[in-house]
Amino acid sequence: MVESNSEAPLLKDLDKCVHCGLCLNSCPTYRELGVEMDSPRGRIYQMVQVVEGRAAMTEDYLEHMDLCLACRGCESACPSGVQYGRLIEAARAHIEQNVKRPWHIEAFRDFVFGTLLQSRFLLSLAGRGLHLFQASGLQSWVRRSGLLKRFGNLENIEMLSPPAEAPFFFSQLGKVFPAEGGRKHKVAFLSGCIANVSFARLNEATVRVLQKNGCEVHIPAQQNCCGALHVHAGRKDDARELAKNNIDATLDGGYDAILTNAAGCGSTLKEYDELLEHDTAYRDKSIAFKAKMKDINEFLASIEIRPPAKPLQMTVTYQDSCHLCHGQKVRAQPRKVLQAIPGVTLKEMALSDLCCGSAGIYNVVHNDIAMSLLEKKMKSVNATGAECIVTANPGCMIQLQAGARIHGKGQPVLHVVEVLDKAYRG
Q1: Which fold has domain 169-301?
Q2: What is the separation, in whole angstroms, between the first and last Cα of the chain?
Q3: What integer pLDDT is reported at residue 161 of this predicted model?
Q4: pLDDT value at residue 351
Q5: Which of 1, 23, 336, 405 is the most buried (most CB within 10 A)?
Q6: What is the predicted pLDDT for the residue at 111?
Q7: How many Å separate Cα 384 from the centre of its chain?
Q8: What number is the average pLDDT over the span 400-416?
Q9: 167: cis peptide before it, omega within 30°?
Q10: CA 226 from centroid of its chain's CA atoms
């Protein structure tokens, strides 16, 4: 049995699984590989064996846990209410506690999760380097040259490199943007970490849309990374420190809502109460924070959206972000926002809530599976005939942009908020 201070999955949570198999068809890795141990119930079976001390953390166990996209599609399919997202995160944290990786891998993980994602300076520095690579034409030359084909999956991985959108959004932290037409709401906007570099224009569009709808928008100066990537990687202690800082940066601001435009971030932000459930100083604060935390689509759908003055003639299809529809149970709201825009026609794709293969950094670490999922996703997209792909998460946008270049018709990929912003701007 595991020790009392272990991050391991709890048996009371594991025992909710009745192994009925209704989750199998909703699991991307099972659909791709057809391997029982790479299905939700198969992984839960393995977790039980490890937690009860009947099996060791073998290389096979680590691989099966790592191959999971943590998309949580199985949660939507499960009739027993199994909180699979909580289980896979706990399993990875348990691995992090007990498995020593080679020193160079440990050093790289420490740098990425412990330093890079938590440093505005280093993110800006990396962003400037990426911007130079892209703006100079070097990226286009490398892609045309076919040079990367010689290095395995590197060509596909490079296709997934996010844009560097100068000027970066870091410069807006600490600012307050007034509402248009009188203040109806006072909100805080959490702008993320990498998104401040790679989705600066999306963040600006988010602020403009909120202003148009009577929101006084505060960008808390002391906010930091939400910790989602840390939780997914099993580094819960790092995530806890980030969570406490975000709570301190926002909770006492008198905000009507705390908002994010990134579904993957929002899912973790809304689960700070689980992350800090044993922290006596932050338990109640985390519950209060969760009560105010909203995805931007969720918030906009809950207020009376100001209608754009002119129609935006556009046919779109919507890809559900996994952590929005399965993690946060927010499905109808993005569609409600799109359908409130005059001239926009929404054409639903088949299996819109099946993962596109992005899943944080999964599309880099397990590129073969991610690209196979993307190819199938683009068949569903192309079948709609829509001229634009819309989603609600920056990671999904990067993946779908690659899909549109490789398997699609070059369709633009926009966030729901960007579509609404386009309508407002005519």
Answers
A1: Glutathione S-transferase Yfyf (Class Pi); Chain A, domain 2 (1.20.1050)
A2: 62
A3: 82
A4: 96
A5: 23
A6: 93
A7: 25
A8: 94
A9: yes
A10: 11
Phi, psi of 38 (to 5 degrees): -105, 30
- pLDDT per residue as tens digits for the range 316-374: 999 999 999 999 999 999 999 999 999 999 999 999 999 999 988 888 888 899 999 99
Domain residue limits, the chain: 11-98, 104-159, 169-301, 308-425
Backbone angles phi, psi at 186, to 5 degrees: -115, 115
In angstroms, rounded to a whole number, what is the distance separating the alpha carbons of residues 54 and 73?
Answer: 28
Neighbours of 360 (CB within 10 A): 17
CATH 1.10.1060.10 for domain 11-98, yes or no, is: yes
How many degrees, rounded to 5, is the angle at CA 286 between CA 280 and CA 287?
105
Q: What would the two tokens of residue 101 be?
A: 């990786």
Tokens of 197: 């570099």
Average pLDDT for 219-237 = 96
Surface-to-core class of residue 213, CB atoms within 10 Å of its CB (0-12 exposed, 13-18 middle, 19+ buried): buried
Q: Using an 8 Å Cβ cutoff, are 196 and 232 in contact? A: no
Whether the pLDDT of residue 2 is over 70: the answer is: no
Length of the chain as a residue count: 426
Instruction: Summarize pLDDT for 50-88 with one digit per residue, the tens.
Output: 999 999 999 999 999 999 999 999 999 999 999 999 999
Q: Where does 224-271 show beta strands of DSSP type E? A: 257-260
